[in-house]
Amino acid sequence: MDLNTLLRNAVDAGATDIHLKIEMPPIVRADGSLRPLEGHPALSEGDLESILITVTATNATKLDAFRETGEVDTAYMSPDLTRFRVNGFRQRGATSFAFRVIPKIVPSFADLRLPAGVQKLAEEHRGLILVTGATGSGKTTTLAAMINHINSTRPQHIVTIEDPIEILHADRACIVNQREVGLDTQSFGQALRRALRQDPDVILIGELRDAETAATALQAAESGHLVFSTMHTIDAAETLARMIEFFPGIKQQQIRSILAGVLRGVVSQRLLPRIGGGRVGAFEVMVTNARIADLIRENRSEDISDAISEGAFFHMQTFEQALIDLVLRGDVEQEIAANAATNRHDFLVAVENAAKRQRAANAEAEAEAEAEAEAEAQAEADKAAADNDIGQLEPAPGEAPLQLRVVPAAETG
Fold this sequence. Notes:
alpha/beta; 13 strands
């Protein structure tokens, strides 16, 4: 089994994920759908054991942990390949793998078509910023773009705590130290506590998983650091509720008060099939302003969506607004967008109203363009007529020029 050849063929086929299972050919996910990778036979237990040894070759403790627990999280790369996040696990006594393709080059905000609110959040200097969404929705890539923006624009110290390290960041304007749980540190909580003593300006936590990590992240944000992390929640309102639920009831009001003060924003995202191939992101962006802070403090999460929809001045947008924009731009089919919306019926009504407004605006723009063209044509015609009148006053070749004399009023009387 040549793992590198298999992975190279998968990347060339446009795969974002590769699944390896006994007695099955390699299965790749491309444009959100699974299909077999052509040209590769079914895998044997020997093939999968060989892959296990290859991906854990740089860290023997990972192999020992898999033998003991049946689980392994690591990263794999080869000089001629991109980087891969790897999860190995046992099922029915056999070994299986899920590889996630990690891009070599960190995409820009423009490459990802991120809303303006995301860059606004990346330009914060303190507080907590959360990027949320389901597994495979592109959270890591969005975070990488935000970290890359900071790394390119200001001289600071960035510390990341990941499990495993996914996208590698070279030192540019910033010093970037990336720590991997299980290799460089024992746990997120321990690494985060130590990070506060490492003179960081920016801290990236791969995921908020428990009350200890959440509490330390809030503490870091309170103490003047800029903290980024992810959560597996679908929108800002659910994110706030989940964050509060990490803590016992007696502490929840205190946590709401802290969160209202340190939370800078929440970016929630989903990936949808693009017309013509590929996938495109739909983003909800919540930027914490005075109104949002009051809603958090007063535990009124049901009003968060309305505050976001009315927050265009602060570069906020709801999922519904993002989906409508994708449909009107011709990026996503209306049915697919409707199925992704929180409320299908409300979305269909909203997109129809938006389409009517767009048609009216286009008709008005066309009428203005036609009126402007007619005005320009009339001006050209008037100029041509004036030029013709002047031409008629000019003498023919060989004729004496016209002599004009001013006649006094007395002579004309």
